[in-house]
Design a protein that fits this description.
9 helices; alpha/beta; FAD/NAD(P)-binding domain; 5-stranded mixed β-sheet; 2 domains; elongated; 24 strands; about 450 residues; 5-stranded parallel β-sheet; single chain
């Protein structure tokens, strides 16, 4: 917005499932003649295929599937770029990168001119912004690492801890805890694996039937996992920051007083989002001294009070009319009642189509500007994108959350599925067909235009 270039700049923060889906949909939907540059800002050198982590945790040869380089995400001759950096602050027309990770100006040079730094090399301007920063889950599910090499090192240490332990306790029976318990027990059947969960059901997410939750418990128990429900345990030193502890302990359950001997404890509880980058966001009017009001904008009005996730409209724009050019997708938003990688992908695709509509509308407005004789509504309904006719470019697409869908891959041979229409499937074949075989690694390597190793 502040650049003199006539190139429309789309900045996407976060290169995981939602962010990459948005980028790919943008490249697919934008006409080749469009003067658009996409800038994907990502703090790591490679994409973490996190849903494959637990398989890589117990099968060393599977690790090669876990980190996917961004090298070929964009065509070499395109104006689009991947910028490695961490966004520290978001404003209404630009973002600022962390001072520790300033990219070279050549890394953010566009075909129509360089990004306007406004004398600050950390600054990246945008016309449209997509926040796709995802969520945080205790390691090893999602690791707080700055590079793929560091991530591989963390995973190797955890794998060695598992190998050297005999009595493993996992706290938290959501999807992550369930899959981890299943993978460990399958790979090391002689080890004792105990899963402690505070609720009366495993994977106790809204919208999923009791039968799915029961089948999940039965599958684990059939594998030999000791599932303990309606219980909690305080384990000294175990926290989100230190989620894997190798120590000889006697764990006492709070309600029953039952004791469990353990030499390895893993915390797998609680998804969190970090939306503090929005603390600097203000409506454009408050940046203009002539229009500024005495009331300062509170960015917390953009967040869900409990989860701190970003509130969005049905169009995935921020739930505030002052920011029609800023979107939030995936786990970091409240778009879906149960965030999953598939819902992040779906919201990313919807977001991209809406941005394309806004760009198209802006281009048509520029063409029509000054021509009062032309009917503003003429032939809007005949515009085409993605091979179909759009009724109106003035109405954005409403995001429809995907129906409750979950595939729990608890070992290479299967698990438990709940799929729309088909319902819950118990056993190996269904989960293997959908996910368990390679944990969708092939799909996501292809999505990044990379040959699977």
């Amino acid at each position: 917005m502040t650049s003199t270039s006539d190139t429309t700049r789309i900045v996407v923060i976060g290169g995981s499932y939602g962010g990459v889906a948005c980028v790919n949909q943008l490249m697919h939907s934008l006409p080749k003649s469009s003067k658009v540059a996409i800038i994907l800002i990502e703090s790591r050198d490679a994409r973490h295929h996190c849903i494959a982590t637990y398989r890589a945790l117990v099968q060393e040869e599977f690790v090669k599937n876990l980190w996917i380089p961004y090298t070929h995400l964009f065509p070499e001759d395109s104006p689009h770029k991947v910028v490695r950096g961490t966004v520290q602050h978001v404003f209404n027309d630009h973002v600022l990168l962390s001072s520790d990770e300033i990219p070279s100006l050549s890394d953010i040079t566009l075909s129509q001119g360089s990004v306007d730094s406004k004398t600050d090399p950390r600054r990246v301007d945008f016309d449209y912004l997509v926040i796709a920063t995802g969520s945080m889950v205790p390691s090893p599910a999602k690791m707080k690492v700055k590079s793929s090499a560091e991530g591989l090192s963390v995973l190797k240490r955890t794998r060695e801890d598992i190998k050297q332990s005999e009595r493993i306790v996992i706290v938290g029976g959501g999807a992550c805890g369930v899959e981890m318990a299943g993978e460990i027990k399958y790979a090391f059947p002689s080890k004792t694996v105990t899963l402690i969960h505070a609720s009366s059901d495993l994977v106790d997410y809204p919208g999923f039937p009791k039968s799915f939750k029961n089948q999940t418990r039965h599958y684990l128990e059939k594998q030999g996992v000791d599932v303990i429900l309606n219980e909690t345990a305080e384990i000294p030193g175990l926290s989100r920051e230190y989620s894997v502890q190798r120590a000889e302990r006697t764990i006492t359950l709070k309600k029953s007083g039952r004791t469990i001997e353990s030499d390895l404890q893993i915390l797998s509880i609680g998804m969190e989002v970090d939306t503090t980058i929005l603390s600097t966001l203000r409506p454009p009017s408050q940046d203009d001294p002539d229009k500024a009001t005495t009331t300062r904008f509170d960015f917390k009005t953009l967040l869900d009070p409990k989860s701190k996730a970003v509130l969005v409209k049905s169009t995935l724009q921020l739930k505030n009319d002052a920011f029609p050019n800023i979107f939030a997708i995936g786990d970091v938003s409240k778009a879906d009642p149960v965030p999953t990688c598939m819902s992040a992908i779906s919201s990313g695709q919807t977001c991209a189509r809406n941005i394309v509509k806004l760009i198209h509308k802006a281009e048509r407005s520029r063409v029509r500007r000054g021509s009062e004789a032309e009917d503003n509504s003429q032939r809007d309904s005949e515009d085409e994108i993605d091979g179909y006719l759009c009724r109106s470019w003035t109405k954005l697409e409403d995001y429809v959350p995907i129906r409750p869908l979950m595939v729990l891959a608890m070992n290479p041979l299967g698990g438990v599925c709940h799929l729309p229409v088909l319902g819950s499937w118990f056993g190996g074949v269904a989960a293997w067909l959908v996910k368990s075989g390679d944990l969708m690694s092939g799909r996501f390597w292809r999505e990044m235009n990379m040959p699977r190793p």
